[in-house]
Design brief:
By secondary structure, the protein is mainly α. The protein has two domains: 242 residues, no CATH class; 90 residues, Periplasmic binding protein-like II (D-Maltodextrin-Binding Protein, domain 2, 3-Layer(aba) Sandwich). The protein has a four-stranded mixed beta sheet with strand order 2-1-3-4, with helices on both faces. Helix 6 runs antiparallel to helix 9 and helix 6 runs antiparallel to helix 11.
Length: 360
């Protein structure tokens, strides 16, 4: 047993050293996910909190206009910035620096006839509009703001909007773990093409040692990438991942899923060219289905049902629960268990197919 573990650990050390010397692999593991997380996060608003930035140009300077500004500033969902030029306010909304712009006309004394700039390309426009309408309604009623929960086509999450870096960070983590699962099959394919696997199986070693050697390389790369993305999102984008134990649990499940995909797809792809050309697209497709590209709350009901066929949807639900809903480790256990179940089933199919293929 000890000798077998030494063989596996030796393979892990050799794989790690090879990865450290391969600049293209380092770019794919660390630079590319970080850049995509930053670009997509800024495209979704770039928030480090659940608040929206609203620009206000007050031309009325009445007690009602000051009261409206005070109500918006007191709302934890909004961050208010003052403007003195209507054109600059409009351009700021158009370019995405503001989620909304409010132009209070001269002589305004309450009511809903307030021009509001919103970007039609923003997925959060309806949410911001509903929040502003709630404050206007509360001001008109002279009391508490109306409760206007946001409902989605699929009947999903109706609390604080899941946008910005707190969404794109876990989405990219899950997405790249799945992409790696399809791409990191190259060592298995190389063994099959070269015929070296037959000689390894003929050596006085157990089959599980060879499988362990094949699994340890992608596992350590995925762990390194996951840790890097979690720490980078926390340090540079202010993402608070929630319960550390829950984070460890679901991340371990996602890494196991990626390794299981490696073992299975190493038997499905025929050549290394197929893995490189088709693997990323298949990973992206499963990621899209599972909500790595957009929140599942905004998709039609039938798409939300289909999303459950992708393990990415269960992983995303766990991560988003930790980040947005402050879920505990115990509360994300069901989602993590389902991801682990996907990993076990995929790994079993992969191992059953891999042994006869490596011996050919």
């Amino acid at each position: 047993m000890r000798r077998s573990l030494n063989v596996i650990f030796g393979a892990a050390a050799a794989s790690g050293a090879a990865a450290a010397r391969d600049r293209r692999r380092l770019v794919a593991l660390f630079l590319l996910p970080g850049v995509i997380m930053a670009v997509v996060g800024f495209a979704m608003g770039g928030y480090v909190s659940s608040s929206f930035v609203v620009g206000i140009l007050d031309r009325a300077h009445t007690s009602e206009s000051r009261a409206l500004i005070a109500r918006l500033e007191a709302n934890e969902q909004f961050r208010v910035r003052d403007y003195t030029n209507a054109e600059r306010l409009r351009i700021a909304v158009f370019r995405g620096r503001m989620n909304a712009g409010i132009l209070i006309p001269p002589g305004w004394h309450g009511g809903r006839n307030v021009p509001v700039y919103l970007s039609s390309a923003s997925s959060t426009a309806a949410i911001v509009r509903a929040g502003i309408d709630a404050e206007l309604s509360g001001l008109a009623r002279g009391g508490k703001s109306l409760d206007t929960p946001i409902r989605y086509p699929a009947g999903g999450h109706a609390g604080s909007p899941r946008v910005g870096f707190p969404y794109t960070a876990p989405a990219n983590l899950v997405l790249f773990m799945m992409i790696n699962g399809f791409v990191l099959t190259l060592p298995i394919l190389q063994l099959r093409e070269s015929g070296l696997s037959r000689r390894l199986l003929a050596a006085p070693r157990r089959t599980w040692e060879l499988l362990g050697m094949l699994a340890v390389a992608p596992a350590q790369q995925m762990v390194a990438e996951a840790v890097f993305m979690i720490v980078a999102a926390w340090l540079f984008f202010g993402v608070h991942w929630g319960d550390p134990l829950g984070l460890l649990l679901i991340t371990a499940a996602v890494v196991c899923l990626g390794v299981a995909i490696v073992l299975l797809m190493g038997t499905v792809f025929k050549t290394r060219q197929q893995a490189v050309s088709l693997g990323p697209w298949i990973g992206v497709a499963f990621g899209m289905l599972g909500g790595c590209m957009w929140p599942l709350e905004v998709v039609p009901p039938f798409m939300k049902i289909l999303a459950h066929l992708s393990p990415a949807s269960w992983a995303m639900e766990a991560y988003l629960g930790l980040i947005f809903d402050h879920a505990t480790a115990l509360e994300v256990v069901p989602d993590a268990a389902i991801v682990f179940a996907f990993a076990v089933i995929i790994a079993i199919f992969g191992i059953l197919r891999l042994r006869p293929q490596l011996s050919r």
